[in-house]
Amino acid sequence: MRSRATQFLLSAVFLLLAFTASASLTPPPLPEVSPADAAELAELSEPIDWASLESENAVLAVLLVPPGTLYGDAQTATILLVPCDPKNRLYRFFRVGQPPLGLRAFGNDYTGAFDDRYDWREQNYTQAEVESVYAYLAQRDRHIYNTGLANKEALREQNRALLARVMGVPVEVVDNPTGMDVGVRISAFGREHLGGHGLTLNPLRLASNIAGLAVQLAGRAAEVPGAAFDWGFAPIQKIPGVGPFEGTHRRTRTAFLAALAHVEAQTDARARVYTWMHSEGAITGFAVFSDLSAEQRQLIRGAAFGPGSGATPEGMDIELLALRSTWVPRRILGLIPLINLDVDQVANLAGGGIMTSHLRDYRYMTTESFYTHGFDKYLPTHVRAKAQEYFRTEARAFLGR
Amino acid sequence: MDHWAMLHQGAVVCCVCSLFAGCVGSSESPEDRFLSRGHYVLQSKDAAALEGPYTIKRILGPNRIVIESGGQDVRVTIRGCRPTDDEKMNLRARKSIGTLLGPDGVYIRTDCKQVIDKSAWKAVVYRTANKTAIVGENLELEKTVLTYAMPQLLNLAYGYSLLDTSDTDYPLYGVFKEAEQVARRNGNGYWATHSDK
């Protein structure tokens, strides 16, 4: 009896925790408005064709808003009207607050501003103009993110999504399953297929939970040799003639050829394949570029982050970028091989002798962070600057001012 | 000599041959080999030969662009190239010239520049290529250009443009002529469908 009460109590606590967790992940309910309500809420900057709202598509509109009312001090707000009840012409009404830069070309997947480090404002353009530029660029260009060594799938996807949001256009990650992923998958198997029965006194489920936990721990432990395998396997790619048969190289090549085919089919002479190459991803990327024709190479524009970036073929529109920590004196870090953040040395090792003289001109951005080589470290600085440059250059061409 | 020794010797010979073939063999096309020999890419140490950057405003055609110089629009004829009578080739040439459109502007080779009047020049034009960049306090990119590339040479070597033989008095004419010969010899671009080899 006592154990049942305990079981009930624990289950209740567990349910409460689960409910709280799920509630915190669920976005707050969105207000629903009719077109008439929306019109009353704010003066429309331009008339909306309400008939078009009867389609299934979401519609963007820019509202002029009296300052100090709904939207703080903002003069305008971009809203997204998503049909939820077309028959009665009811729409979900997204966006409260000042307009950030762009819906970033994600169409109906608008999620708003996400971080002051990455957002900025363009005073010369209206929100609608910004949207139109990003929508055009998303259709015209292709962006590829080449990841570094020893990544986990979740991290690759997280970086890809962040890069896409900073740049404002879709980004494709080149699929490079690594040794570390094996450990992750073992962990996931233990968690999802063996354990996961929650609090229970059922002996079979309890045993399954314990087995699941053991497999999860084994998976975690396997990540370390997985990373070691990745580091050990990477040099194989550098053996002349082997690279094209190696999986990551082949997938990278396939991704670039597909992107190039898309860009070559565009009539706009500004269309490009943009590449964002991190560390080992830069070495793989450059190995692939070496096999492309000069004509294909000139349609690629991009940035390479950190060690490995020095192997860039000459004549390509590629920028080399690096971060250096100011957290620990460099003379101390310089004593530790591979961790010394001395880009020249690491890149020489990683590049396997295919380095060019470019490294002499390698430039650094110093940072307070101890570990500088994570891809996310480059985003608030280099990538944001590149995103601004990308938008401003292309907006001038697209809008003619 | 026993069989094992013969096999061993044979294997060694095969390995050496393979390595040799790997070293001397190349999948590079003749036009890319020509471009990699130089001229297509200019190193930063030779950048004194260039002036710029000029803001490029638009592409007028496969061999004509508009740049801004001193607040005034200048129509630049890209020297050495003339369009073909094939629209597909012209589009490819235009796209190649389109690579000049970038945030860094374009550079003009001083020894090949001919000023016709204040709003019309003939020139050999480069874009920036390999760069390093640091980010300034206001998140502006401060770039150091390591190499520059010349798309018009690519157009000639790939057969997307024809050599302009009416204009020969500039130092790079010989290089452009050689590039067109590469295209003719290998039946590239325009020369794939025209018998004028």
Structural notes for this entry:
The complex is a heterodimer of chains A (401) and B (197). By secondary structure, chain A is α/β, with parallel strands linked by helices. Helices cover 46% and strands 14% of the residues of chain A. Chain A is built from twelve helices and twelve strands. In chain A, the strands form three sheets. Chain A has a five-stranded antiparallel sheet with strand order 1-5-4-3-2. In chain A, strand 6 (142-146), helix 4 (153-167) and strand 7 (172-173) form a beta-alpha-beta unit. In chain A, helix 3 (127-140) packs across helix 12, helix 4 (153-167) runs parallel beside helix 12 and helix 7 (247-264) packs across helix 8 (280-291). Chain B is an alpha+beta fold and 197 residues long. Chain B has a single domain (29-192), classed as OB fold (Dihydrolipoamide Acetyltransferase, E2P). Chain B is built from five helices and 13 strands. Chain B has helices at 3-24, 30-36, 87-97, 151-157, 173-185, and strands at 41-43, 50-61, 64-69, 72-78, 81-82, 106-109, 114-117, 120-123, 125-128, 131-135, 141-145, 147-149, 162-163. In chain B, the strands form three sheets. In chain B, strands 1-12-9-6-2-3-4-8-7 form a nine-stranded mixed sheet. In chain B, helix 3 (87-97) runs antiparallel to helix 4 (151-157) and helix 4 (151-157) runs parallel beside helix 5. Chains A and B meet through strand 10 and helix 12 of A and helix 2, helix 3, strand 10 and strand 11 of B.
